[in-house]
Amino acid sequence: MTTRSIDDPRHPLLDALGAPEDVKDMDNDGLRALAAEIRGFIIESVTATGGHLGAGLGVVELTLALYAEYQFNQRDKLVWDVGHQCYPHKILTGRRGQFASLRQWQGLSGFPDPRESSYDTVKTGHGGTSISTAMGFALAWRGRHEDAGRKAVAVIGDGSLQEGSAFEALNHGGSFKDLELVVVLNDNNMSISPSVGALSAYLSRVRSSTWLNARLRTIQSAIRRIPRVGDEVEDVLERWYHSLQGIIPQHALGIIFEELGFFYYGPIDGHDVDALRHAFRATHWMRRPVLIHVVTRKGRGYKDDVPEATCYHAAGGKVVASAAGPEYPDQGGASFTAAFADQAMVMAERDPRVVVITAAMLEGTGLTNFQQRLPAQCLDVGMAEQHGVGLAAGLALAGYKPICAIYSTFLQRAYDQIFQEVALQRAPVMFCLDRGGMVGADGATHNGVFDIAYLRCLPNFVLMSPRDTGELVQMMELAATCDGPSAIRFPRGSGAKPEAQMPHAPFAIGQAERVAAGEDGCIIAYGPMVYAALEVRRRVQADSGRMLGVVNARFAKPLDERLIGEELARQPVVFTLEDHVLAGGFGSAVLELVRSQSGHLDANRLELLALPDRFIDHGQRSEQLGNAGLDVDRLTERVTARLATVRPASPVRLVSS
Length: 657
Ligand SMILES: Cc1ncc(C[n+]2csc(CCOP(=O)(O)OP(=O)(O)O)c2C)c(N)n1
Hints:
By secondary structure, the chain is of the alpha/beta class. Helix content is about 40%, strand content about 15%. It contains 24 helices and 19 strands. The protein has a seven-stranded mixed β-sheet, sandwiched between helices. Strands 1-2-3-5-4 form a five-stranded parallel β-sheet, with helices on both faces. α6 runs parallel beside α7 and α9 (about 210-225) crosses α12 (about 275-285). It is globular and about 90 Å long. Bound molecules: thiamine diphosphate. Thiamine diphosphate binds near residues 58, 84, 160, 190 and 413.
């Protein structure tokens, strides 16, 4: 690890800093120098470990100014939206020494986590939630009459502000005239890629209102000359702002937010510590919802002169060696994401009715090239999963063939749209759920381990998961023929290399595949866990001579009742295997099948291998799976232990693989 010790001579101010409140004793020159140290530390540390680089670099001054003006651990509360920008906050709150372990197993989380620090209000990773949470604190204080002068501060990016839930919170928050809620809008005109949509265009107009900016600078420098800013001056300031509304273009004063009941302050330069501190002070006396519009540059300080589309949203970092070995199942082939995007392009070029929908995840879902080549067939709806799914339903009902490319974890946002707009109408929307299963370094907020459960209970859905990238292509073709909704889940990372993939025979909806024969038991695996099952089979045979059959389930709904029923009827023990929680998952579906045919099938022969009923933290996927008892080593142990309880069958026969 290249990260320096915390006594690095290049960070004297950081070394001298005790509690984050110490920044209150620093003058603004000192804060600027501290900002430079923090930036240098983040760049060096995060380019080594990997992690969210750009967002944190953009809010260094903002974080310092917040800590200089508020009292977060005692009086006020700070809620970061998404949380990927919290590295400066973590550094200030005593976690600098742990940055070498960032996003590694049992290391520092890349997101806020109250288990790490009492300065972290909530554990987050999904966007659009901060205003609601902060408002909850503000309302609770108000209800207990503990709110006087106490601020609940939400820091939200312009990308996350597009989430429906953020708008819902603005709508509700603005209706409380006396709520001590502060929303800091961190506007860098970026989501992961450049922000999209009408709100983004509006914010651009506000930002470019140079006339207004010039006046704001005048106001700020006038106030700056006053040693202690009294209520009287602030009152004048507020009236001045309101009087400006009559004479300048309305959009320039954040009229949207004003109309929603917030006092709007801005736009201000989010890298100007003086301006930030004055904004916080100037609004501190106000007993009403306030929105402070701060303009920052994402990735500030890191190769500033190199224009980069994603402003270094995330840095890859070096591959961190781990005792658990390489990530599993990362088998050296093309990534599932790339295979999905290539196939989507093939289908879209063939049929102009095919439209892909992404919710601010163009890069993550592999669709950048698609968008460049077929822009008319690629809709980036912004960070708005609910709308994306509702839109897909409408398009499908109108004769289009929408493919919703949304990560398994983020699709949770759109659950009611999936139910009503899609399932209830039997709208033929194809969901392609990337990051199904353990995702690694992003951890518990991002693991996509609930989708089978939340989709399987909805009538009309077909659920499938490919064993490899070749089967993903087949499944997308099959899903395109469905007359109702379908969902294909596939994992992060790469599958088996093409030459290592088993042959791909055509198949129909609900048809599983026997990939290896054996009479001592059978593993019915879902998705890429099929390759893990084959490896377990190999090891079990080598260790004990017992031969397991392996079935590629392909479908969690509808199940291949005939094939699975046959295995359950003839094998001494049947294991189901999935990278998903036990409750409601693929194994649960098989158990339900057994119960529905209890006259014929014996539930005691069934053993469900799935994720336990707890959240699993960040680390490499191999470590996460190991912790859950689902890596190949532990699977082999668990399967061997169960096989020891049943009599071996003979003779052993090997059909394939
Ligand atoms: C509900 C949800 N959808 C998608 C994401 C993926 N995501 C993480 S950060 C991000 C962009 C956030 O943009 P913004 O709020 O403007 O913050 P910035 O990174 O620009 O500082 C997205 C889309 C997420 N975290 N949560």
